Amino acid sequence: MLYAIFSDIHANPQAFDRAAADAREQGAERCLCLGDVVGYGPDPHGAVKRVRAVCGVTLMGNHDAATAGLIDTWNFRTEARVQAARHARMLDHDELEWLRQRKYVYRAPGGAFAAAHGTLAHPMDFGYIFRESEARMAFAELARKGLRLLFVGHTHSSMWCSIDAGGHIVAERSDELKIEKGRLYIANVGSVGYPRNEPHSVYALYDTHLRVVRWRRLAFDFDGYFRRMEAANAFIAPWLRENAELARRGGG
């Protein structure tokens, strides 16, 4: 089975459409979204509509939970808090109810992998996996569930880390990962619609037969995105402009 795994669409349906079209061209058979369909971006309605149509499973992200009124936004950045409130007003009752019904964890058939927005340990808290201690907690939960591979988003950084039987952790950013016996893995699929930490729109493909994860890094339409953000009176963070300049120089 070839899965296409998306995350962090952030109200950017144009970027999602491009990623979904690329996934179809790559032969993806199932599509999964790890959450944050809304938040930050200019078009929550379009994003919800497209993701609902394409992804058989969509998980709960922290921005989805905030927009749906399930969590408080006291610890959100100002622009994130403002957009969550705005998106809650823009979406209709059916769309908000769909967000509220999202699950926090997905386990693929046959135990091929697990998925969550932020981490497998206490997924409703939307913790990040940045530090070694956070990775070890996620690995411990993965092992407890008898699984070897976890897909996450949330950090907007496409990368992977693994742990061997001796407890040694390695982390790397690459375009391909082969799942080997005797190790546990966490694969962060990156962000489709809000390129905070790299100048691309990113998602991952996972071939459960070959046990290979491939990251697809697509050109991000910064100019069009900025026009849509400005038309929606949405805040454009400085790191987005920095990544736009990096993309123009061919970096990343």
What is the count of structural domains? 1
Percentage of β-strand residues: 15-25%
CATH superfamily: Metallo-dependent phosphatases
Rg over CA atoms: 17 Å
What does this protein look like?
The chain is α/β, with parallel strands linked by helices and about 250 residues long. It has a single domain (about 1-250), classed as 4-Layer Sandwich (Purple Acid Phosphatase, chain A, domain 2). The protein contains eight helices and twelve strands. It has helices at about 15-25, 45-55, 60-65, 80-90, 95-100, 130-145, 220-230, 240-250, and strands spanning about 1-5, 30-35, 55-60, 105, 115, 150, 160-165, 170, 175-180, 185-190, 200-205, 210-220. The strands form two sheets. The protein has a six-stranded mixed beta sheet, covered by helices on one side. Strands 4-5-6-10-7-8 form a six-stranded mixed beta sheet, with helices on one face. α2 links the parallel β2 (about 30-35) and β3. α1 (about 15-25) runs parallel beside α2. The protein is globular, with a radius of gyration of 17 Å. The mean pLDDT is about 95.
Brief descriptors of the model:
252 residues, alpha/beta, Purple Acid Phosphatase, chain A, domain 2, 6-stranded mixed sheet
